UniProtKB/TrEMBL annotation:
PANTHER family: AT30094P, SPHINGOSINE-1-PHOSPHATE PHOSPHOHYDROLASE. Keywords: Membrane, Transmembrane, Transmembrane helix. This is Phosphatase PAP2 family protein. The chain crosses the membrane at residues 62-82, 94-112, 132-153, 160-182, 188-205.
Amino acid sequence: MTSARFSVAAAWTLLGLAFLSATGTGLLLNAAPSWSSAETRIVGAVNGFHAPVPDAVARGIDTLFGTPVALTITVVLAAVVGRISRSWTTALRTGALIALPWSLVYLVKLLVRRPRPAAADLPYASGIEPSSWSFPSGHTAVSAALMVTVVLLVPVGLRLAAIAIACVVILATAWSRVYLGVHYPTDVMTSMILVPVAVIALHRITGRRSSPPHPVPRRIHGPDQRRRPRSRP
């Protein structure tokens, strides 16, 4: 097995293990109500720190990484990458690096079906009532998928700055979901781990290039061609 094939196989294995680990963690959390009760106290402590500026930031993040806006950002980013690279294959690959991990998170949600923190147990009612299940965090997943994809796309010279910005955006998103009282800490932590792993694994899988075909020797004479005798003057 060549090193390239081994890397792709390892990426598939890593992706599968990340998905199984996330799903297993969620099922264990659901089976232990006392754990959710302990996390509710943490959510209450973060949610109770209520001020106009954090409110505005958290609500802005809620809109930015909500499904309608996030889909628009994904399409625009993919189109820009396709335009710059002059390759619609690259554009589709960029969109897939964001959309597939995002979809993976929603699959885990459907399998785990963890309820959201109860608004009645929180000191501040944000008024935001998501319709999906709690585990893992969809907003955190979207921000992580977008930012990690951008990190992988930027030139190497800008990579450190992109990583720093990505960490700030992802952490801010994770904080905002707990601050608004719509997610437990383990919900956002799982998305912060699962999604970057999924993006990097898919980047390796979709980045594989097949080896170029061997050149076909050029024929001087076709199979049905015969040398004609040179005519004498």
